[in-house]
Amino acid sequence: MSGRLRICSCPVAGAAPDYGLRMTRTSVRPPLFVCSTCDYQSPKWLGRCTECGTWGSVAETAPAPTAPARSASGRRSENRAVVGLRVAPVPMPIGEVETAGASQLPTDVPELDRVLGGGLVAGSVTLIGGEPGMGKSTLLMQALGRLASRGARCLLVCAEESAAQVRMRADRLGALASELFVVSETSLPAVFAYVASVEPVVLAIDSIQAVHDPDAPGAAGSVTQVREGAQELVRLAKENDIATVLVGHVTKDGGLAGPRALEHVVDTVLSFEGDRHHALRMLRALKHRFGATDELGLMEMTASGLVPVSDPSALFLTDRRLGATGSVVTAVMEGTRPLCVEVQSLVAPTGAPIPRRIAQAFEGNRLSMLVAVLQQRAGIALANQDVYASVAGGVRVAEPAADLAVALAIAGARDDRAVDSDTIVVGEIGLGGEIRQVPQAPRRLLEAMRLGFRDAIVPTSTPDVPGMTLRRVGDLRQALGAAFSRSG
Ligand code: TYD
Ligand code: MG
User: Fold this and answer.
1) What angle (nearest 5°) sits at the alpha carbon of residue 76, between those of residues 72 and 80?
2) What is the mean pLDDT of the chain?
3) Å from CA of 139 to ligand 2 middle
4) Angstrom distance (rounded) from CA 373 to CA 389
5) How many CB atoms lie within 10 A of CB 375?
6) pLDDT at 5 over 50
7) Percentages helix, strand, coil for the chain, rounded to the nearest 5?
8) What is the CATH number of domain 314-484?
9) C-alpha distances in Å from residue 296, one per residue of 115, 270, 292, 337
10) CATH of 104-310, one of 1.10.3660.10, 3.40.50.300, 3.30.390.60, 3.30.420.360
11) CA 87, CA 467: separation in Å to the nearest integer?
């Protein structure tokens, strides 16, 4: 492990040019006003932030001290000792650029690796955001425990809990590995010092909002503090090839506290979501510089930590009432994985001049469009009806492949007719009422077959799937005929 960190102790290093750390800005700066929600900066006070639209969030901030003010004897020069000096970059043909820095460290937490596309990347910074109590610290501890048990030295900086509390969690999660180092610390300079002495391969900070940099303005958790702290940690990660994980809390409205600025600084932003009263947890990548962002990680919080959901489709269909009107099952793709989910609709007469169209767990505009197409292309009268539609189980569906299921659920709810409970429905609907093909239809149908579905209403071009009866439909009227022919 020794020698991983390039610690500069030779005199030559001290005399070498200090790329990137020494900036000279000496002019007196005017006051700066910063939005506490989105970090927007303005030279004058604003009642409402012009960037994010929040009222009363812009306040004057003391201008951040410039780098030279701290470079002589302050911590930045100490940081330099930790992070070493960079070699001056030279432009070179792209094919000659070394890619060694992009090696991946699988965490052995399967759903985390699925979302990361393999594992943590050396030298990268990953932000895990989520509401308090979601299980961020648990997920982190499980990942660090497994990485450390395979010999990767990990340093966990717990800025919110004592080392004893963290040890108790590690006990419960079976994460007591000798290569996992823990320190309860909130001061950023101290964190740098610990990194220099422990020389970790993986550094985790729980949470970035609780870490304080005495050289930066503002209280712990303020936008400036979070941004400055994150920037220094990113630099530390890049220059020493440390895979770094930052835990971040989200605000009430779902944004990561502090920071849009923080989202720009890090390589990967993961969002850990779920309902605190249910055990299901969903992990998604909102940004990922090293891979796709469409994979969904599904886990359950148990007494012994987070476990992967072994059969998500079965879980989402657990509470389905067979034969209920307004209920249709469809198969959506979440990244590379097909998932069967139940779409539900309720249609109720209304006296309101503008009837309500309320979508839960999928896009409201899509619902309005489907209602219009049902009315205009299939003659389903919905003008005096409130229409509610939702996806049961908590997964958010963004795919047009669920259109036909939503439309049939609405039509069924409107006329109190049920689609057969062993029928799966897949298809996108165009504005002309035509049913369009969906990508990976066979994979979706095979997943449905695994769960016992034997009958499918699908777009005309769908290839045969042995063992399943396909009813191919070209437009919405044909689909309504196929879906409700038996229930009359
Ligand atoms: P935690 O990881 O502390 O959440 P966060 O860091 O996002 O605030 O844990 C969330 C909840 O999970 C906590 O209330 C206790 C519960 N929990 C379990 O159910 N099982 C476990 O094994 C652990 C460690 C926690
Ligand atoms: Mg926590």
Assistant:
1) 100
2) 84
3) 9
4) 15
5) 13
6) no
7) 30, 25, 45
8) 3.30.230.10
9) 6, 10, 11, 8
10) 3.40.50.300
11) 62
Question: How would DSSP label each residue in 12-79?
Answer: HHHHS--TTT-----SPPPPEEEETTT--EESS--SB-TTT--BT-EEEEPPPPPHHHHHTTSHHHHH
Ligand 1 pocket: which residues have CB below 6 Å?
A: 130, 132-138, 169, 172-173, 301, 303-305
Distance 136 CA to ligand 2 centre (A): 6
Mean pLDDT highest for which of 2-6, 306-310, 452-456? 452-456
Atom 12, ligand 1: residue with shortest CA distance = 135
pTM (2 decimals)? 0.73
Of 44-58, 79-93, 223-237, give the lowest mean pLDDT range: 79-93
Centre of ligand 1 to C-alpha 171, Å, is 13
Based on its alpha-carbon atoms, the radius of gyration of the chain, rounded to whole angstroms, reads 27
- Quick one: which atom of ligand 1 is closest to the CA of 139? 2
Q: What pLDDT, on a 0 to 100 scale, did the predictor assign at position 22?
A: 33
pLDDT cut 90: percent of the chain above it: 57
Give CA–CA dist 1/457, Å, rounded.
59
Q: Are 378 and 433 in contact (CB under 8 A)?
A: yes
- C-alpha dihedral sign at 16, 17, 21, 27: positive
Cα–Cα distance between 327 and 416 in angstroms, integer? 11
Per-residue confidence (pLDDT) for residue 65, from 0 to 100:
45
- What are the boundaries of each domain within the chain? 104-310, 314-484
